[in-house]
Design a protein that fits this description.
Blueprint lengths: L18 E3 L5 E6 L3 E2 L2 E2 L5 H15 L4 H14 L9
Antiparallel strand pairs: 1-2, 3-4
Helix pairs in contact: 1-2
């Protein structure tokens, strides 16, 4: 089974509490709670701004390992253009 990820930030959507919500408060199957709530994106960001925001969060959670953060940023730069929010 394919692992579901947020179509904005790439976060894993395994736990039901991580899913965003639609305007009727139903669960949104595409986006996480950090990106999408009440039927709207929580922040209007460019894809590049989202990558930087996610890289900063990753840095905080990885103890600031510069090589790991740069590897994550590279991965996000490849992944994000394939996600629903950023796909052209």
């Amino acid at each position: 089974m394919e692992k579901k990820i947020c179509q904005s930030c790439g976060m894993a959507l395994g736990d039901p509490g991580f899913y965003g919500t639609n305007s009727d408060d139903s669960r949104n199957e595409d986006y996480c709670i950090y990106c999408f709530a009440g039927g709207e994106f929580n922040e209007e960001l460019t894809m590049e701004e989202m990558i930087e925001q996610c890289a900063e969060m990753y840095a905080m959670n990885s103890g600031g390992d510069a090589a790991a953060v740069e590897a994550a940023r590279t991965h996000m730069t490849e992944l994000f253009p394939t996600l629903k929010r950023w796909k052209k």
